[in-house]
Amino acid sequence: MNKKEALIESLEKANKRLKEVVLLPATRVSKDATIKRFEFVFELSWKTIKEYCRDEGFDCLSPKSCIRWAGKMELIDDVEKWIEFLENRNLTSHTYNENLANQVYAISKKLPKEVDKLLKKLKS
Length: 124
Fold this sequence. Notes:
- By secondary structure, the chain is mostly helical.
- The protein has helices at residues 3-22, 28-55, 63-72, 79-91, 98-108, 111-123.
- The chain has a single domain (3-123), classed as Four Helix Bundle (Hemerythrin (Met), subunit A).
- Helix content is 77%, strand content 0%.
- α1 packs antiparallel against α2, α2 packs across α3 (63-72) and α2 packs parallel to α6.
- The longest helix has 28 residues, at 28-55.
């Protein structure tokens, strides 16, 4: 198994776990778990995109540049939505602020569907 395949497999597993937690009733603990899993799934997503780009001969070094390349390569449909995920991932260190935590929690629920689409394209 090469690095890209390993990342895809890890991303599938992590996304499955995020899907499980977003279905739980919204308690403080489930929100915290959702935010943490969101953060992890986002990180795996952009690093998987980075590896895919590298295999295709493109070099992206930051999450934002990788998201833009993924849009150009039609791996993702909505670059702006993924930039929003990135911006919210950057807020995860501030989730002690209840308003920010609620914002990140809300956006976290949208990530699994987008990751499913990404995975489908990565595998085809």
